[in-house]
Structure formats: structure tokens, C-alpha cells
Write a structure and sequence with these properties.
There is one protein chain. This protein folds into 2 domains: 46 residues; 194 residues, NADH Oxidase (3-Layer(aba) Sandwich), CATH 3.40.109.10. The protein contains 7 helices and 7 strands. Helix 2 packs across helix 6, helix 3 packs antiparallel against helix 6 and helix 5 crosses helix 6. Bound molecules: flavin mononucleotide (FMN). Flavin mononucleotide (FMN) binds next to loops.
Length: 251
């Protein structure tokens, strides 16, 4: 059958239209995927919950005690039960120390210039649902990311001049800091600010531990290089103090 010029024009028009329709369908599909991805990312659903990357539960429901009671009860404890902490407890302790409490990124503890020089690591011995190892706390995501495998508590105790009881804690929170985040703005005085901030964050964790019926202690006597080597901290991250946490023995 002969095909005239007009027919050819119609055929081309139809092809253009069908190509346009299929491109439009593809675009619609991509937009839907993008919306789903953005939603999943905002709810934390897109990041896999693995042993390497642990989403921490948010704040525990309140069983609040008066602050004055917590202050009265706070005591350094160096004997721990051979039991596990829950993921909620670990999440809550870390949040208390450095959790984000404001859309602009402000945290539970004050920070000179809001520069946030602190980095928290957790040496996990016995925590439900977590492998033993070393984890880095990501405050912005309320998440832990594993940096090392294996039980490091004994070696940590050795690095703390053989304070052997440290290895009986269910977990040890190591407070480290990047000085230059603060000294860049405040010069040598920035070092003082960093040390003050460690104290603020540590006391937050301490009081939170008491309110959860847990026990802790501040440990400042350790070899900086030994702890840094053991935890394989980046060059500019300096260990400041550590806080073994667990349930008090003899209860
Ligand atoms: C900066 C600092 C470093 C500390 N270092 C250690 C330590 O290495 N080992 C230890 O067992 N206790 C350490 N402690 C805990 C103190 O010994 C303890 O706070 C003190 O005995 C008072 O007891 P309390 O905390 O029960 O009130 C340290 C406390 C601070 C504030």
C-alpha cells in the first residue's frame, strides 16, 4: 500500500508522542523513587540496621527523679555485675552526654562557640544486640558505627595503668576531643574550653546513669598513646577521660 507524505508525518507525530509518554512515565517513576528515598532517609529507614551500624533508640520514657536526688546518689563505682546493658540504656547515656536537642544542632552539654570538639567512643563488652567491639557515636544521627571488632576492655584496663576493674564494666565510654575545632577560634585558651566541656558532658552521662539505676566512674589515669593506639583514634583525636558503665555489684 502506498504511503504518502501526510501519513509519514502522522506516523512521526505518533512516535514522538509515544516517546514523550514513555519519558514522562520514567520521570514519574524517578520522582516517586526520590520521594520514597527522602522519606526513608528522614525516618532512618534507609540505613541498614547492621552490627556495623546501629541506630540507637531515642529517649527512654520518663521515670524522672528529682535532680537533687540524682546528685545526692551519684557516687564513683568500680565494681560491676556480670550483666548486659540494653541498647536503650547505651543510647540514653550517649544522648545525655552529647545528644542533639535543638534544630540548629545544639546539644545537651554546652560548648564554647558551639564548636563541639568532643567525640565519643564506646568499648562494648556486654550490650544486648551488639557485638563486642569499639563504636563511634554519631550524635547527629543518634547512631553507633563500629570501628573495631573484639573485646578491648582488658587492654583498656591495662592502658589505664592496670585498673583491672575497668574490664568488668559492661561498656566503657571514652570521651575524646579534637582540640583544633576550638583552638582555631579561641587560640590556646581553646584547650581549656575543651577540658571544661569534657566535664560537662561527663557529668551529664554520670547523672543519666544514676537515673537509669546504673553505675559509673570517671577515669583520667591512663596512657594517652596507649588508649589512642588501642582504639585506633585518628591523629587529631585525643582521649580525655573514660567512663566505665554497668550495674553496681552487690545490690
Ligand atoms: C578528672 C578525674 C579523673 C579521675 N580519674 C580516676 C581514675 O583514673 N581512677 C579512679 O578509680 N577514679 C578516678 N576518678 C574518680 C575520683 O577518684 C572520684 O571522683 C573521687 O574519689 C570522689 O568520689 P565520688 O566520685 O564518689 O564522689 C577521677 C575523677 C576525676 C574528676
Amino acid at each position: 500500500m502506498p504511503v504518502n507524505n501526510e501519513d509519514i508525518a502522522v506516523i512521526f507525530d505518533e512516535m514522538d508522542e509515544s516517546r514523550f509518554r514513555s519519558a514522562f512515565r520514567q520521570m514519574k517513576f524517578m520522582v516517586v523513587c526520590l520521594v520514597v528515598l527522602i522519606y526513608a532517609a528522614s525516618t532512618g529507614g534507609v540505613m541498614a540496621q547492621t552490627q556495623e551500624n546501629i541506630a540507637l533508640p531515642k529517649i527512654l520514657p520518663g521515670d524522672e527523679q528529682a535532680l537533687s536526688q540524682l546528685l545526692k546518689q551519684r557516687r564513683s563505682v568500680r565494681e560491676f555485675q556480670d550483666v548486659s546493658l540494653s541498647l536503650e540504656e547505651i543510647g540514653q547515656l550517649l544522648w545525655a552526654a552529647q545528644g542533639i536537642t535543638h534544630p540548629l544542632g545544639y546539644r545537651t552539654a554546652p560548648s564554647a562557640g558551639a564548636l563541639y570538639p568532643l567525640e565519643l567512643y564506646v568499648v562494648v563488652g556486654q550490650v544486648e544486640g551488639m557485638d563486642r567491639g569499639v563504636y563511634h557515636y554519631l550524635a547527629k544521627e543518634q547512631r553507633l558505627v563500629k570501628t573495631l571488632d573484639g573485646d578491648k576492655r582488658k587492654r583498656l584496663a591495662r592502658a589505664a595503668y592496670w585498673q583491672s576493674w575497668i574490664s568488668n564494666a559492661s561498656a566503657v565510654v571514652v570521651f575524646a576531643a579534637v582540640y583544633k575545632r576550638t583552638t582555631r577560634k579561641y587560640g590556646s585558651r581553646g584547650k581549656r574550653f575543651v577540658h571544661i566541656e569534657v566535664g560537662h558532658a561527663a557529668q551529664n552521662l554520670f547523672l543519666q546513669a544514676v537515673s537509669l539505676g546504673l553505675a559509673s566512674v570517671v577515669v583520667g589515669a591512663f596512657g594517652d598513646d596507649d588508649v589512642k593506639d588501642l582504639l585506633q583514634l585518628p591523629d587529631d583525636v585525643e582521649p580525655m577521660i573514660m567512663m566505665p558503665v554497668g550495674k553496681k555489684a552487690g545490690r
